[in-house]
């Protein structure tokens, strides 16, 4: 199913990726499929590696063609085959969800940390030009907002810790082996194709599913926690800018956000109003272990190094996302 926000990727990124072979790990997932779609539109030869534990072939059916390989980043020989001949690797494959990581920390370490090491090794052997990593704003933990990349990493969950480990590995490989890398710290990415059916669904997806089904959305805590919700096209744009940057990036960590703060209570009210249920009151549940109070991206480094500015603001992104969930969940 296509989405109605039409990004003019060619006007933004020109001919840089024409006939360039690239690998997108986790490319059948939410963010990865949007990235793969943009790369296809830009003329790249896209290889998607995904074990479908969180992604879906359906996410790849609304565009094409891509070379799809079903498999895991823990399969090192398979990674070598997928990476061969690639100039860029966009490493999106990971296990998400802070709550689930508390239940399965060893599994998260295997997939997110060891898996990232495997991807780096495959990229090094293939002489890849640059590797871009889906890092996470959860690395900041309890730092005061706005979050600047010079702040210390204070992970508060196994998930966050594995993402910080990935960043450290990318920086080490840039210094030790000359494999250029960049860690893009995503801030609460949302948009079409984000799974609303998981027990660990992200808040916008979970709210959409509940409201469309006529149920009250559930909020953990008092709802005054705030997030820098970032539409998925902005994350894609940042990846493409980072890949095409002429100068080395050298393992730098770079925020990718929208530069706005929205409270969870505001979000619930906005979504209820948009779905024609302005009086719907959310249910409040206990706070979750490992959650953070506020997130808010300082974007100066992204602007300086990459020329990054958000291309879709929060309100426009939320409108399109709600329209997509209305169609998918209700079937209308």
Relevant terms:
single chain; 332 residues; alpha/beta; Rossmann fold; 7-stranded parallel beta sheet; two-stranded parallel ribbon; 13 strands; 39% helix
Tell me the layout of helices and strands.
Layout: H1 9-13, E1 21-25, H2 30-41, E2 45-50, E3 67-70, H3 76-83, E4 88-91, H4 98-103, H5 105-125, E5 130-136, H6 158-177, E6 180-186, E7 189-190, H7 203-212, E8 218-220, E9 226-227, E10 230-231, H8 232-244, E11 252-256, E12 262-263, H9 264-274, E13 283-285, H10 300-306, H11 314-330
Parallel strand pairs: 1-2, 1-4, 2-3, 4-5, 5-6, 6-11, 7-10, 8-13
Antiparallel strand pairs: 9-12
Helix pairs in contact: 2-8, 3-5, 5-6, 7-9, 7-11
Structure notes:
The protein has 332 residues and is of the alpha/beta class. The chain has a domain at 16-187 and 232-259 and 296-311: 3-Layer(aba) Sandwich (Rossmann fold). Helix content is 39%, strand content 16%. The protein is built from 11 helices and 13 strands. Strands 3-2-1-4-5-6-11 form a 7-stranded parallel beta sheet, sandwiched between helices. Strands 7-10 form a two-stranded parallel ribbon. A two-stranded parallel ribbon has the order 8-13. Helix 6 (158-177) links the parallel strand 5 (130-136) and strand 6. It is globular.
């Amino acid at each position: 199913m296509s989405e109605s926000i039409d990004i003019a990727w060619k006007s933004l990124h020109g001919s840089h990726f024409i006939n360039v072979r690239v690998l997108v790990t986790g490319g059948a997932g939410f963010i990865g499929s949007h990235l793969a779609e943009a790369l296809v539109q830009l003329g790249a030869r896209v290889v998607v590696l995904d074990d479908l534990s969180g992604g879906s072939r359906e996410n790849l059916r609304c565009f094409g063609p891509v070379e799809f390989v079903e498999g895991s980043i823990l399969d090192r020989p398979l990674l070598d085959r997928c990476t061969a001949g690639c100039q860029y690797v966009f490493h999106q494959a990971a296990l998400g969800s802070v709550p689930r990581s508390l239940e399965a920390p060893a599994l998260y370490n295997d997939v997110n940390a060891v898996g990232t090491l495997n991807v780096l090794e495959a990229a090094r052997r293939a002489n890849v030009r640059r590797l871009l990593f889906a890092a996470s704003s959860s690395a900041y933990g309890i730092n005061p907002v706005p979050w600047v990349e010079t702040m210390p990493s204070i992970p508060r969950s196994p998930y966050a810790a594995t993402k910080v480990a990935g960043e450290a590995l990318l920086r080490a490989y840039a210094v030790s082996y000359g494999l250029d890398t960049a860690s893009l710290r995503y801030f609460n990415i949302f948009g079409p194709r984000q799974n609303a059916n998981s027990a660990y669904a992200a808040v916008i997806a979970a709210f959409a599913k509940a409201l469309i089904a006529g149920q009250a959305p559930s909020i953990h805590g008092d709802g005054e926690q705030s997030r820098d919700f970032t539409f998925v096209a902005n994350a894609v744009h940042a990846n493409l800018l980072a890949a095409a940057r002429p100068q080395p990036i050298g393992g730098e960590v770079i925020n990718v956000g929208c530069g706005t703060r929205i409270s969870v209570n505001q979000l619930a009210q906005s979504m209820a109003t948009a779905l024609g249920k302005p009086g719907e009151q959310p249910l409040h549940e206990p706070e979750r272990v490992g959650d953070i109070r506020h997130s808010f991206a300082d974007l100066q480094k992204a602007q300086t190094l990459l020329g990054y500015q958000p291309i879709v603001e929060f309100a426009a992104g939320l409108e399109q996302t709600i329209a997509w969930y209305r169609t998918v969940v209700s079937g209308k």
